[in-house]
Specification:
Length: about 325
């Protein structure tokens, strides 16, 4: 009998720009304090990509190059590239097309996927099907966002939250480990609580939209907070129970939007804080990049077979969890 094929993460890389924006810097820009930001969000600093004409692809390219080097993979061997982002370099072509060109990936098809902060979990679910069916052997999945390009640095309710970063994984077939299951959900009526008002086809850019600061993230924080806690916890607990994953074995990999959300979700799952991956203090919310960036930083702690539950909530509303088993030991 043919063994079932899973899509396994066989390598992970990330990149963030060197420039740091601290809470002390923000205190000089808006009416806020380090104490408020740390106590309400857990964030101490975030990375910002500076310089003219640098888009999200500039964050992703170093991560992808490192991924190829680390695995000794030629760009020509890659047969599919997906980039999930809410800050594409431009409306079209896809940022994945631009990244592929910049790293020399020429035998692949590449495209972008958008599901706001849930982009990375949605993308893994989609990409895994191409591996499972045998139609792709090596897929690069990238989560990258230059959130500083859509953050209003005069709005104290949103500007402390976001930062810039990219993370990338290589997916390959494996008969033992890999992506086991996903629970993905959407509620489009949530679109009024977290979005960018202008710049799309419904309300194209004009002097008026620029003057009204409509090309930035708009968020009703409290509404999003409550939904994030309950929905992320629901899908994470459901996944843990469905697969009977013991609380002392599982790694929770939460989207990093707010430390209080992460703590509440972990508590509902009954997890020891040691089983929860957290790096929000250093990078803030990097939207589609939070999950690969935090796994990248915990890579050395992971062992072959470790169960991971990735969990996210974001604009849309979109949310979901992915259950995977880790495929390799640290070098
Ligand atoms: O990744 C996508 C999903 N996004 C999320 O999951 C984010 C979810 N939301 C949140 O994380 C939180 O709602 C925030 C961090 C955005 C805000 O925290 P909060 O505890 O919900 O604060 P709040 O909006 O209820 O505001 C409390 C107070 C208000 O003052 P008053 O009305 O009580 O006088 C705000 O004006 O805090 C004030 N405030 C600030 N004060 C100092 C808001 N922002 C700031 C600030 N510094 N930066």
């Amino acid at each position: 009998m043919m063994k079932k094929v899973y899509a396994a993460i066989t390598a992970i890389e990330a990149w963030y720009p060197p420039d740091i924006l601290t809470n002390a810097d923000l205190e000089k820009m808006v009416d806020t304090t380090d104490k408020w930001i740390v106590s309400r969000t857990g964030i101490k600093e975030r990375r910002i990509l500076r310089g003219p004409d640098k888009g999200t692809s500039e964050l992703a390219v170093p991560a992808v190059k490192k991924l190829l080097e680390k695995t000794g993979t030629s760009p020509k061997e890659i047969d599919m590239v997906i980039c999930t982002t809410v800050t594409p370099d431009m409306f079209f072509p896809s940022t994945a097309n631009i990244i592929s060109d910049k790293v020399g990936i020429t035998n692949a098809f590449s495209f972008d996927m958008a599901a706001a902060c849930s982009g990375f979990v949605y993308m893994l679910a989609v990409a895994s099907k191409f591996i499972e069916t045998g139609s792709a052997k090596k897929i690069i999945c990238i989560g990258a966002d230059k959130m500083s390009s859509i953050t209003d640095y005069t709005d104290r309710s949103t500007c402390p939250l976001f930062g810039d970063a990219a993370g990338a994984v290589l997916l390959e077939p494996c008969t033992e480990f890999g992506i086991m299951d996903h629970i993905l959900r959407t509620d489009g009526s949530g679109r009024h609580h977290l979005y960018m008002k202008a710049g799309g086809s419904q309300r194209p850019a004009s002097h008026e939209t620029v003057d009204a600061h409509e090309h930035f993230i708009f968020q009703e924080g409290q509404t999003v907070f409550k939904m994030a806690v309950s929905k992320m916890a629901d899908v994470s607990v459901e996944m843990m129970e469905k697969h009977q994953i013991p609380a002392d074995k599982v790694w929770l990999v939460p989207h990093q939007a707010n430390l209080r959300i992460i703590t509440a979700v972990a508590k509902r799952m009954g997890l020891d804080p040691k089983r929860v991956m957290i790096n929000i203090q250093k990078y803030g919310n990097t939207t589609t990049a939070t999950i690969p960036l935090v796994i990248y930083e915990y890579e050395k702690k992971l062992r072959k077979g470790d169960p991971l539950i990735l969990s996210s909530f974001g604009g849309g509303f979109t949310w979901g969890s992915v259950y995977l088993t880790w495929a390799y030991d640290p070098e």
